[in-house]
């Protein structure tokens, strides 16, 4: 089989693997927030964000992440998670005087960019959106 044929088939596996790679952090983070609910709510309050929003954050991370992984309403979930990444970057990681915060800001922006690629191109061949 020639080289070009392999490259043409690459998106068939790259898209579902990429969906798992970009979304798993949100699923795990959402479940982690459930396990440390009081701590996270207190931290959110200390950052000027009402802790009462934590259930929405958890739902977005877990359900949005699972939607991306499964390819179910993936464009919509990716759009929401992209916005979440940008808002989180600005609200929680905009202290550029600290290098780690700047890196976390840029990571959030990079993840948002990855989600925007998913918005633009869809979930790919192996997705529930294609059933």
List keywords for this structure.
131 residues, mainly alpha, 5 helices, 78% helix, 0% strand, globular
| Count of alpha/pi helices | 5
Detail the poorly predicted runs: none
Q: Categorize the overall geometry.
A: globular
What helical percentage do the residues reach?
A: over 70%
Characterize the largest beta sheet: strand count, sense, and whether it forms a barrel: none
Radius of gyration: 17 Å
Class derived from helix and strand content = mainly alpha
Oligomer status: single chain
N to C succession of SSEs: HHHHH
Terminal-residue CA separation? 30 Å
Instruction: Report the count of strand segments.
Output: 0
Instruction: Please indicate the percent range of residues in DSSP E strands (runs of 2 or more).
Output: under 5%
Mean pLDDT: 93
Number of domains in the coordinates? 1
Question: Topology of this structure?
Answer:
Elements: H1 3-35, H2 37-46, H3 54-70, H4 74-92, H5 99-121
Helix pairs in contact: 1-3, 3-4, 4-5
Would you write up a description of this structure?
With 131 residues, the chain is mainly alpha-helical. The chain has one domain (3-130). Helices cover 78% and strands 0% of the residues. It contains five helices and no strands. The chain has helices at residues 3-35, 37-46, 54-70, 74-92, 99-121. Helix 1 runs antiparallel to helix 3, helix 3 (54-70) crosses helix 4 and helix 4 (74-92) packs antiparallel against helix 5. The longest helix has 33 residues, at 3-35. The radius of gyration is 17 Å and the shape is globular. The model has no long low-confidence stretch (mean pLDDT 93).
């Amino acid at each position: 089989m020639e080289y070009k044929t392999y490259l043409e088939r690459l998106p068939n596996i790259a898209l579902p693997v990429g969906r798992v790679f970009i979304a798993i952090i949100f699923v795990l983070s959402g479940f982690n927030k459930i396990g440390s609910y009081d701590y996270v709510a207190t931290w959110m309050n200390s950052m000027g964000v009402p802790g009462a929003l934590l259930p929405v954050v958890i739902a977005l991370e877990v359900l949005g992440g699972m939607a991306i992984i499964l390819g179910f309403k993936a464009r919509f979930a990716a759009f929401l998670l992209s916005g979440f990444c940008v808002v989180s970057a600005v609200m929680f990681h905009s202290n550029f005087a600290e290098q780690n915060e700047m890196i976390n800001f840029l990571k959030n922006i990079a993840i948002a960019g990855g989600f925007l690629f998913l918005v633009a191109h869809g979930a790919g061949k192996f997705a529930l959106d294609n059933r």
